[in-house]
Specification:
The protein has 12 helices and 7 strands.
C-alpha cells in the first residue's frame, strides 16, 4: 500500500459487513453487533481478558456486556484474508486488520445499543429493497437458498442481519444530522486549497510489529543521515523502500493535501523548495517516511459540486466522531492481548 488514503485498509472495511453476511459469520456468537469505522478518540480500557475463549468484551452502563469470542474473531479474520490474501503476508496490514475487526465490533455494539435505547426500528422498505437486490444477483431462489445453506444461513437469518445493518445505517444518519453546510466563502477557500499541489518522493520503512518500532525509526534516521550527506534519494528509495514506489525512486507524482494522510501531507507541504528533505522521519499508520519535495504547482480549481461533497463528507465524519465519542464515554473495552496485539488508543489517520 502507498500513503494514499484510498489505499488504506479502512477503505476495505466499507464492504466488510456484506462479506460477513454472505460468509455466515453474523453476530450469533456475540451479545450485540458485529463490525465499522475508525475514530480518533480514546477508548476507556479495562483490565485485559485472561479467558482465552474471548477476544474482546464491551462493558456498557445499564446494558448487558457484549462479547466477541476468539472463534468468531478468527473466523472474521480468515473471511477477510480470503477476500484480500495479500494482507496475510504483511505483518503491518495483518495487525491493522485485527485492530479493524475489534473496532468494527465495538462501533456496531455501541451504535446498536444506542439505537435500541432510542426505540428506533429498521425501515421495512429499505430492508425489502436490500433483499430484492440480493435475490436479483442469483439466477433462482433455489440457488440463493443453496448458497445460504452452505454458509449456515436461512432467509430468516439473512433478513435479521439486513435489518440490523439498516438500523445501524439509520442510527448513523441521525448521528451526522448536525453536520453544517459550508458557506460560499468556505467552499471557495477549500477549492483554492485543493488546487495547490506538490510532487514528492518518499521512502517508506514499515514497522512489522510494535516491538520493532524503535529499531525501524533508527534505520530511517541512518538512511536520512546518508541522504543529508549527499546520497541519492532515488537510489536510497530503491534500496530501502518497502512499497511499490521504490521501483520509481519513491516518486509519488503530484498530489493535494486531501490525497494523503494528514501527517504525511503536512510534512510534504511544509517543505519550501524543490530538493528539500524533511528533517526527520515522518510517522503515519504505514510506518516511517523520508520525504523529499520535487515540485509545486497550482492545478485547475476543483468542480464546486465535488468540493461541496468532499467538505460535507468531512463534516459528517466529524459529526459522527463527536457523537460516537459520547457513546464511548459510557463503555469500557477489555481485550485479549494474545489475540488483538495492538493498542486501540494509538492515533490513526483518517
Amino acid at each position: 500500500m502507498t500513503v494514499f488514503k484510498q489505499a488504506r485498509l479502512q477503505s476495505l472495511f466499507a464492504a466488510f459487513a456484506v462479506v460477513l453476511l454472505l460468509a455466515g459469520c453474523g453476530g450469533e456468537d456475540t451479545d450485540a453487533g458485529d463490525d465499522g469505522e475508525v475514530s480518533e478518540s480514546q477508548y476507556r480500557m479495562g483490565e485485559p481478558i485472561t479467558d482465552s475463549t474471548y477476544a474482546l468484551v464491551v462493558e456498557m452502563e445499564g446494558e448487558e456486556d457484549a462479547a466477541l469470542t476468539r472463534a468468531v474473531f478468527q473466523e472474521r479474520f480468515q473471511t477477510f484474508i480470503q477476500q484480500v490474501p495479500a494482507v496475510a503476508v504483511d505483518p503491518t496490514q495483518s495487525r491493522e486488520l485485527r485492530r479493524g475487526i475489534a473496532e468494527e465490533f465495538i462501533r456496531r455494539t455501541l451504535i446498536q445499543a444506542e439505537a435500541e435505547k432510542l426505540g428506533l426500528v429498521p425501515d421495512t422498505a429499505k430492508v425489502s429493497e436490500q433483499i430484492r437486490m440480493i435475490r436479483g444477483s442469483f439466477s433462482s431462489e433455489e440457488q440463493l437458498n443453496q448458497i445460504l445453506a452452505q454458509r449456515g444461513l436461512t432467509m430468516d437469518s439473512l433478513r435479521s442481519s439486513i435489518e440490523e445493518e439498516v438500523l445501524l445505517q439509520q442510527m448513523q444518519e441521525r448521528m451526522i444530522e448536525d453536520a453544517t453546510e459550508p458557506t460560499a466563502e468556505e467552499l471557495a477557500e477549500f477549492r483554492e486549497e485543493q488546487s495547490q499541489q506538490v510532487r514528492a518522493q518518499h521512502i517508506l520503512f514499515r514497522v512489522p510489529e510494535p516491538s520493532k518500532k524503535d529499531s525501524v525509526y533508527e534505520q530511517a534516521e541512518t538512511v536520512l543521515d546518508s541522504i543529508q550527506a549527499g546520497a541519492d534519494f532515488a537510489e536510497m528509495a530503491a534500496r530501502y523502500g518497502s512499497d511499490g514506489t521504490r521501483t520509481r525512486g519513491g516518486d509519488l507524482g503530484y498530489f493535494s493535501k486531501a490525497d494523503m494522510v494528514a501527517p504525511f501531507a503536512d510534512a510534504a507541504f511544509a517543505l519550501s523548495d524543490s530538493g528539500d528533505v524533511a528533517q526527520e522521519p515522518v510517522e503515519t499508520s504505514f510506518g516511517y517516511h523520508l520525504i523529499r519535495l520535487t515540485g509545486r504547482r497550482t492545478a485547475e480549481l476543483m468542480d464546486s459540486t465535488q468540493a461541496h461533497a468532499m467538505l460535507m463528507q468531512e463534516r459528517q465524519r466529524e459529526a459522527f466522531d463527536a457523537a460516537y465519542d459520547e457513546l464511548r464515554q459510557g463503555a469500557v473495552v477489555r481485550v485479549n492481548p494474545n489475540i488483538i496485539d495492538v493498542d486501540l488508543n494509538e492515533p490513526i489517520e483518517q
